[in-house]
């Protein structure tokens, strides 16, 4: 692990479900600027464990595009698909500490057991059917107990609170908003929530900078960190980029791949999205842009709530 002068370690963690688009460029730029503004290390982690969603060739394409845009990682990229042993070990530790339990419910059973009050943004909240045993069902997934009857690790177990460096103070009641959530899925896939927490801890990540679409996952990740006895990094969630219909820009909503032959144009647009007041609106090179953008990021941070 390379230590940065400041001890800051940040990362960009794309999922290779398609080429880099403008929304992911904004996250890459913000995480890179924050690391550089803190004299920190900046790492890239390829989140390629969701087999069905991973697109062949997308990871290599993303890595090449990052280089083309001037983002050079301080360590070789890490691939989640090669780190399954770490996720297994974390689940085993959670089994030993009784933080998780096997669940035999199908999606349909969970949906049938729900009143409308138990849905949040169309997400099903698990009613806890298998918490005290499988009731003769076959185990399909592993779920993490959220803090209302979990072995307690926090003072006020009902609420997870954190200060987001961009969005300000946040809190979430995991029991009423999320319910016991899946760490190992019925199809054998490791859940994003487990992999991201295990990897951020294993890589010594101190600062997470990413899109605000993941703000809603952060309380779950903090709870999981507490259950695994690993540190909680600082969080900063930048505003997401929306398309003309107001939907978050993603491969699913038809985001265009970036034009790698004109990186400066896209980088200037990404900096504008982050509200950076660049001194030079038409930099002659990537180096000139980067120097200007790091200073603008520092000025931007000075005006944030946290
Ligand atoms: N792989 C996730 C994504 O592309 C990001 C994970 C993270 O930054 O925590 O949406």
Structure notes:
The protein has helices spanning 22-37, 58-68, 84-96, 107-112, 174-177, 192-202, 215-228, 263-273, 286-302; strands at 9-12, 41-46, 78-79, 100-103, 119-120, 123-124, 141-144, 159-164, 168-173, 181-184, 207-211, 234-238. It is of the alpha/beta class and 306 residues long. The chain folds into 2 domains: 9-82 and 241-301, 3-Layer(aba) Sandwich (Rossmann fold), CATH 3.40.50; 96-184, Glutamyl-tRNA Synthetase, Domain 3 (Glutamyl-tRNA Synthetase, domain 3). It has a 3-stranded parallel beta sheet. Helix 1 (22-37) crosses helix 8, helix 1 (22-37) crosses helix 9 and helix 6 (192-202) crosses helix 7. The chain starts with 8 loop residues before the first strand and ends with a helix. This is Glutamyl-Q tRNA(Asp) synthetase. ATP binds at residue 251. Pfam families: tRNA-synt_1c.
Which properties best describe this structure?
306 residues, ligase, Rossmann fold, Glutamyl-tRNA Synthetase, domain 3, globular, 3-stranded parallel β-sheet, binds glutamic acid
